[in-house]
Known about the structure:
chromatin binding; H2_N
Amino acid sequence: MSDQEELAGPSGGGGGGGGASRFHLLQPNRDPQSNWEVDLAANLEEYLLRICSGEISAADDQDHALHSVNFAEAALLLQGSVQVYSRKVEYLYSLVLHALEFLSQKRLVCVSPE
């Protein structure tokens, strides 16, 4: 994978922590083209599989770990995914505008010499 921040596995530490973030959540990059390379569907699917397997839970207590989901972490992942997706849409929009400008200028050049 490239430079962009994507989901990472659980931190290497043993137990404890509790409040420490265990995953790097998606963040939009400043470079619009690099946002295009982020595979949002794969990242969201990976996160869902980790939830279903019980690898991700809100409680450190093993009794409740299989039945609870860290909704704050899931919300941050979704928020980051939406931001990356919106940057993808903005980038595509700018590419389409540039293509239309190029075509209209090309048409003017072709029509003008006559």
